[in-house]
Input
Amino acid sequence: MELKSNRLLLEEFTKNDASFFYELVNEPDWKQYIGDRQIHTIHDAENYLLNKIIPTYQKLGFGFYIVRLKDSKTPIGMCGLIKRDWMDYVDIGYAFLAQFRGKGYAIEASITVKKHAKTVLGIAQLAAITNVNNERSGNLLKKLGFEYNRLISYPGEESKCKLYLEVI
Output
């Protein structure tokens, strides 16, 4: 599966993307706002992709996609959909390497994923969750047509996160 926008390609992750995934999940902002996935080696990144991300394509028909610049094929981030067992909604999420933030790539990729969710997958309403301190993601979600709904907690965790729901 491949999605395209003006400047971007969104493709299913493969195990060959492990070195990029390792770099992304070990960025300070990822750890601060998304969480430490305990990925300490390229091998850990490969296992995470093979066991957590790649299986959702077959199981659900969607997942997180690697985002590449269309012209150079350079990987710059990830964007996609996740269905968490404990949430009623399909959740949109994204993360980009620091050097590619502030250039409109996250909103471009998210619009592409949102359109795919509506037109191809038939998902009526999307949600998103963010760290309570991640104002940049909250602002992006507002531009995408989401509004803050309430604070929620991951099961078994005390810390709260913000739930945003798509305005429909």
Residues 2-121 form a domain with the Aminopeptidase fold (CATH 3.40.630.30). The chain has six helices and eight strands.
